[in-house]
Amino acid sequence: MKKLILYLIALLFSYSGYCQKLTSPDNQLVLTFSLLPNGTPTYQLDYKGQPIIRNSKMGFALLHVDRPLAEGFRITDTQFTSSDTTWEPVWGEEKEIRDNHREMLVCLQQEKTDWQVNIRFRLFNDGLGFRYEFPVQPNLRHFRIQNELTEFSLTGDHKTFWIPADYDTNEFPITTSSLSGIAALIDEVRKEPLAAKSPAPNLAVQTPLMMKSANGIYVNIHEAALINYPAMHLNVNDQTFQLSAHLTPDKTGNGAFMQTGSATPWRTIMVSDDARDILASNLIVNLNEPCKIKDTSWIKPTKYMGVWWEYFTGGGSTWSYTDYSDIIIGQTDYTKLKPHGRHGANTQHVKEYIDFAAKHGFDAVLVEGWNEGWEDNHAYIKERIYSFTKPYPDFDAKELQQYAAAKGVKIIMHHETTSSVVNYEHQMHDAFRFMVDHGYDAVKTGYVGGIIPRSEHHDSQWMVNHYNYVTETAADYKIMVNSHEAVRPTGIHRTWPNWIAQESARGTEFESFKGIAPDHTTILPFTRLVGGPMDYTPGIFQGDLSVYGSNPAKGSSTLVKQLALYVTMYSPLQMAADLIENYDRFPDAFQFIKDVAVDWDNTWILEAEPGDYITIARKSKGKNEWFVGGITDENPRESIIDFSFLPKGKKYIATIYADGKDADWRTNPQSYLISSKTISQKTKLKQRLAPSGGVAIRIREIE
Amino acid sequence: MKKLILYLIALLFSYSGYCQKLTSPDNQLVLTFSLLPNGTPTYQLDYKGQPIIRNSKMGFALLHVDRPLAEGFRITDTQFTSSDTTWEPVWGEEKEIRDNHREMLVCLQQEKTDWQVNIRFRLFNDGLGFRYEFPVQPNLRHFRIQNELTEFSLTGDHKTFWIPADYDTNEFPITTSSLSGIAALIDEVRKEPLAAKSPAPNLAVQTPLMMKSANGIYVNIHEAALINYPAMHLNVNDQTFQLSAHLTPDKTGNGAFMQTGSATPWRTIMVSDDARDILASNLIVNLNEPCKIKDTSWIKPTKYMGVWWEYFTGGGSTWSYTDYSDIIIGQTDYTKLKPHGRHGANTQHVKEYIDFAAKHGFDAVLVEGWNEGWEDNHAYIKERIYSFTKPYPDFDAKELQQYAAAKGVKIIMHHETTSSVVNYEHQMHDAFRFMVDHGYDAVKTGYVGGIIPRSEHHDSQWMVNHYNYVTETAADYKIMVNSHEAVRPTGIHRTWPNWIAQESARGTEFESFKGIAPDHTTILPFTRLVGGPMDYTPGIFQGDLSVYGSNPAKGSSTLVKQLALYVTMYSPLQMAADLIENYDRFPDAFQFIKDVAVDWDNTWILEAEPGDYITIARKSKGKNEWFVGGITDENPRESIIDFSFLPKGKKYIATIYADGKDADWRTNPQSYLISSKTISQKTKLKQRLAPSGGVAIRIREIE
Predict the structure, then answer these.
(1) What 3-state DSSP class applies to B299?
(2) For residue A666, what are the contacts with CB-CB under 8 A and spacing of at least 6?
(3) How many C-beta atoms surround the C-beta of residue A357 within 10 A?
(4) First CA to last CA across chain B, in angstroms?
(5) For residue B534, what is the DSSP state?
(6) Do the chains contact at B328 and A382, CB–CB below 8 Å?
(7) A384 touches chain B (CB under 8 A)
(8) Prediction ipTM score
(9) Which whole-number Å values give the CA distances from A198 to A187, A451, B253, in the listed order?
């Protein structure tokens, strides 16, 4: 009789109509898992009683296997757990991060193959994460995923902030349109001239994908812990508003090479009716593994300057040393070549930056163009492009090491790989050893151009493994990594906090190319920054580049908005990107950049609407000092800054950097006004922001 | 007037009907270079007044360029030089090697593009080498070669010793047929079960390609100095007997990625009416660069045994440690796994080999299966297959280091990469450091299975660079390399003599699989060994493997032929491959293996006919001691050994290891007879060789 009951329970349990629910700690989100009659796993996500993701299929198409790993499943077990903990990041927007979630593990077995797949759901108050797990099992060990079949069935034609799916770049401008409007616009966006492009063949967009429903629900889809798996893009069905996973394939048609005893990255869906919750969410880092570096004392948030922007201004300075360009690394003797005289990274010029950085309290100076190879850096066809241990003849690494050390400034190493990745891996140990020997503790890496190994894309599984390999190897040498043109981040900086920042989006350099739209920085925190900090390199005071010569580019913001970005664009690595001469021209405005912190105890998202405006307040790490940054898109606005985040019962002095009355990003970007004000927790400040303007405030306690 | 004359000379010079001749030092070979009316470069090679290569086109098809780099050329310069020098190899068949050649450099410019290509011809008495050079020039720097168009227009339907062109393996059995007979046979040969196969899509064969014309001229086509270029196969036109270059493409369709300031490998054509000249030729090494290693004292010819053959006999011993096979390197804790008890590379067993090697004067013991990962070594899909620094729990590297050192024996490291090449490169520095720390000075590398990076083949340009990279890096650690399943050699061991041997052909292991044909070792010295020494691993006394259990394989030779291979298959690295117990059974025959040298002052090819027989005599390096080895195919023969190579006026004692009267590879392979004889320079010995039999002779001066 007992056996019969158990059998009936088991039968009920494996019944394909069976469904299972999980609720968030605040009960606002409900996740429903069920099997379709054919044994296909599905999930649905409801928010405040309404579906936000309609019933959506899950599974995989495999290579060299006829039957997809997406049907014929039965449930063999379901386990529920919950967890509410806090942890301290090495650096971040908050001193402590709470990880409060409920979890459901659904164990599935495909009946015809006996293959087992588990799906682990974690539901937080601000969203859902789920991943597929492939336990060690008798009948399956190695397999190839052609594509993941995970769907995200949206409830309507949401407003969407998107860039086209592309396997090799994420530097497109961000377009705002309805889901149904993407198709008409995407081909034009794809024409954007970028160093490496491999468009997905179908209608697809990149993550983090930010959306807003007609009834004001904000939805953000991304992934967490992208490890040993290709990056996910999203196919768009603009009839049904169904999104579906689109894994970056390698050039031989493989999605992912898998071995059991592994898991996919987490698929994340943040949900709120308040846009500020998206910016405040820690869902992505909470879904990553804890820090794997034992001694993190050498990982330091950094404010830096650089021999860099001058290469973009059109002023003539450049990375290369000579006009002779038939370079063969290891054979070409640079000491015998005639310098062209426009080489930026020469010892004397770097010393000027070190002097300036030391005088103004910066931690470091980035130097690009210090090493052999820039004259002939053809991507993809050439494999050995640079030496990462041989400086140009006019860059004296030893002398600069001593000079910088004497001034208390670090030099930041630059490793532009031009995507000759295997060659970079060949040189990497020597390159890191060179850094250690010459006092460098941070490297900016770059991945311009098509990838070698030539089977790979920037976002394919192999390259994902490469970025992680570089980061982990760098940690062995106590080196911080700031990667440019790498796959966009997925919160791995929790596990490897030496991966201190990434670019992986359209950054400030585009101010000198095709331009940055005024709403760009009001969107990035909702998209790119959801995965991790960005080395956006703000602080361009002289946006109009025509003053230098031939570059007609104009800036996209007021000068004050550039200041505000140090607060709104969170990063533990912040550059003051402009030239020394421009900071010397505006020393009072520059004071904000000198003062602003790069690590924080707390963060308060005060105002936020993607594509329109963002206002954020933060408390400096370990100091009674606060900063506020507010920005707007092309439209002027009145920001109402509520200082209730300040501790009660005290007085504070606020130094306010505001757009001038006549400020306008197009006509008068350098108009600003600096004032001081005594404020308290009760103060509410009405502050006008110019078109593409901003506001930046420093707040100190009055002792 | 002077200008006019110069103009007329220039006109004459660039006249497309212009041709230029180069003769070999002995005037027997004549190379004729000419341009066709359309400006296509061609060459012809005559031998003793008869064409041996008819007029053949030269050039390239480029990717992303409409016009092939193969027509519209004019000659801008022609330079003649000659050279007669000698050099000393670090190890080899000769103490000194003569490099006597005449050279012609033809400088070409393509009229419509202004692109410059030079062709350098070197004519030796035993053959031709030529290569394309791409000088640094104003209008061309980077380009992609889709295929090389070099032709080798043969004069008839030659007898040919061939294996099918395949981008990933050279382990096919060798077929003997006419050129016109290849097509009917090749599909069947391609069915041979091999670990990785990527057949060329058309009728094509591999080099070194050995041929014999109807009128008895021997022709061998190969290449020298394969550096930063794909390996060349040969398309076969079996109507016109025109061969043409077929470069190994990568999987994205590229042949070679080129930068000016470079050259292709040399294309080599050896020619003689005496087959012995092909075996005696030093053309390939002469076309390679001199040694690049300054201190070569650590590079030592080596005779070794190994924990190896037992894995092939079917006796049960194996590479793996446990039956548990869900291995993740770096995570799996082997100390917690139950050993299956059949692991060959355990400390105790390795000590037995060290004892035996020490007792019998061997230099080293190879140990395969010492490291983590063998339980789950799935190729291509799995990237991190092995650790190269973590021994299995029952392999005590420190203890064995001390044990071997005390006995004066080296242990040879084994790095089976299973072609997960990028991961091997990741681990390589640590792996070499582990070797240095544990007293290893030689490594056997392996490339079983499909290559990662997945765009590549074993023979594509990227992998060619990999093998060279491993060799050069190993030299930094003073490590000798013996590569298996790598691209076949092209004489690079002159430049990097630490690349002490390669497999790169069907070796002795196949005695345990599908078998080795009796004529195989009479062909290999004319094909595979033309490029460099082979780690053939001879010395199998017990060829019938059924004695061990389930493996029905029978050996392909008599026991004495196995002895003779130590002389006929030149290598500075020679293994005594059989089990200890078999050498203990035949201690008198084993004495020859103990005695035979692995480095030589002089070599005399006494008798040779590809596919039929080879008899070679060699003088031990620095010793008044000679060895003779003679082998035959499936047919018995009478060898007439002429000892005129011995110094005059002295008496010598010859210890002769001969097939027994009833010896036969099929029925009685272990029948042998050892005798001694006093000989002099005038002696001519008639010696009967059994079917697939041999003769091995040790000669010492009578003091």
Answers:
(1) coil
(2) A554, A691, A692
(3) 25
(4) 78
(5) B
(6) no
(7) no
(8) 0.92
(9) 13, 11, 17
